[in-house]
């Protein structure tokens, strides 16, 4: 076991534990000496191991190894995709003025911050809201596109509520718009945790750029990758070397790349069985909490979400207080994205879903005896969220104990 039996870890969405197989692969690697850019024996060996890892990851993505760029993580991969494309445009247009960019409004901060920079650089950005289920509708994107549109970014599965976006359908709308107006629009997606449970053949997704992070895929922290389609042009945003085809300066971390390749291969093999197992437990947790906590609201549509994620709101509580209380009881959960944990701000994702009375609860569909609850203003719902994310070490006993502990903590909270 990777965790003490006295602890229940339900924050896999923030960072799952690194697989022992990945750790072993890194330890066995002979790449702690030798720079892959060197021409001596040690450097050649390091380069060989680096390219072997690239080839293994590319095989899972169904792309060429030459289309894969290693980065320091998911955040850098997102920055390289968006700002790297912007730098490429500037090389030809000298300015982003007159260009139009589209992003979903429920993206991770590493995406939204990049688009703030695009606006500072002179580009115009439209932010697409989701429907009440958390889904970005292709028809909404279709209405937003212009002849000046050059770039679209939609995360594959939301990092807070887990809702999976219809990338293939969005891509079809995008390509039809391109043909109609004789333009080219680059389509980027932050893969996040989606590769854990969904097939990752990039060509079937219809995207041009795909960001990966090792820390989301049971791999080591400090390593990520960006798929760059052959017809997509980006420029480096990190300067000082010609590594990674000139797209990412800096000596590559060969051991971390080896760890990522090993973890990615294992989770790709286990996808279906693990998804089925976690979905059953996730729905059990949702069903139990809905039955025991009258005011509880499920955020997002579980029928269209990753199988390991459950995001709830409980009106009139302090979610950080509850998360800390349940942590003291031996259970780790989060209130929102780990990058926003501790901030005095509401969940921008849950806030975008609208008032609770308009939400669609797929748990109510799965469990007809449980009626959808109304109540809680939009602001209160977004302020008081709790995110449970299950993983490879999660057991049915963990789920039962978590439901009991949360109910006990809420009873004490409300008694004060």
Protein architecture, described:
It is a single chain. Helix content is 41%, strand content 12%. It is α/β, with parallel strands linked by helices. The strands form three sheets. It has a seven-stranded mixed β-sheet with strand order 2-8-7-6-5-3-4, sandwiched between helices. A three-stranded antiparallel β-sheet has the order 9-10-12. Strand 6, helix 7 (202-205) and strand 7 (209-213) form a beta-alpha-beta unit. The longest helix is centred in the middle third of the chain and has 39 residues, at 254-292. The two termini are 37 Å apart. Mean pLDDT is 89; it is low at 355-376.
Unreliable stretches: 355-376
Distance between the termini: 37 Å
> What percent of residues are in strands?
5-15%
| Neighbour order of strands in the largest sheet | 2-8-7-6-5-3-4
Mean pLDDT: 89
Q: What form results from the Cα inertia axes?
A: globular
Number of helices: 13
């Amino acid at each position: 076991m990777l965790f003490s039996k006295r602890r229940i870890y339900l924050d896999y969405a923030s960072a799952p534990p690194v697989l022992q197989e990945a750790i072993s692969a890194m330890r066995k690697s002979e790449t702690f000496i030798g720079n892959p850019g060197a021409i001596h024996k040690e450097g050649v060996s390091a380069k060989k191991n680096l390219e072997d890892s690239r080839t293994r990851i590319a095989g899972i993505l169904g792309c060429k190894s030459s289309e894969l760029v290693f980065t320091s993580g998911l955040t850098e991969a997102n920055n390289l995709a968006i700002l790297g494309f912007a730098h490429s445009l500037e090389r030809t247009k000298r300015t982003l003025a007159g260009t139009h960019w589209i992003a979903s409004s429920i993206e991770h901060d590493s995406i939204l911050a990049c688009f703030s920079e695009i606006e500072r650089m002179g580009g115009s950005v439209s932010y697409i809201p989701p429907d009440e289920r958390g889904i970005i509708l292709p028809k909404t994107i279709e209405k937003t596109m212009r002849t000046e549109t050059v770039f679209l970014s939609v995360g594959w599965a939301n990092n807070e509520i887990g809702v999976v976006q219809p990338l293939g359908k969005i891509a079809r709308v995008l390509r039809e718009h391109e043909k109609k107006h004789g333009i080219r629009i680059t389509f980027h997606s932050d893969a996040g945790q989606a590769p854990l449970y969904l097939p990752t053949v990039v060509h079937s997704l219809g995207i041009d750029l795909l960001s990966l992070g090792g820390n989301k895929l049971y791999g080591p922290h400090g390593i990520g990758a960006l798929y760059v389609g052959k017809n997509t042009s980006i420029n480096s945003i990190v300067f000082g070397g010609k590594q990674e085809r000139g797209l990412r300066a800096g000596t590559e971390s060969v051991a971390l790349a080896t760890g990522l390749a090993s973890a990615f291969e294992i989770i790709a093999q286990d996808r279906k069985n693990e998804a089925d197992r976690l979905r059953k437990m996730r729905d059990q947790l949702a069903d139990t909490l809905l039955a025991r906590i009258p005011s509880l609201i499920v955020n997002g549509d579980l029928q269209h979400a990753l199988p390991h994620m459950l995001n709830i709101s409980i009106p009139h509580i302090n979610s950080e207080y509850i998360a800390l209380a349940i942590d003291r009881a031996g259970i780790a959960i989060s209130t929102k994205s780990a990058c926003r944990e501790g901030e005095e701000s509401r969940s921008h994702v849950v806030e975008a879903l609208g008032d609770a009375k308009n939400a669609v609860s797929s748990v109510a569909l799965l469990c007809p005896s449980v009626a959808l609850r109304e109540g809680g203003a939009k602001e209160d719902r977004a302020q008081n969220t709790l995110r449970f994310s299950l993983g490879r070490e999660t057991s049915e006993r963990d789920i039962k104990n978590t439901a009991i502990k949360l109910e006990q903590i809420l009873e004490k909270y409300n008694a004060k």
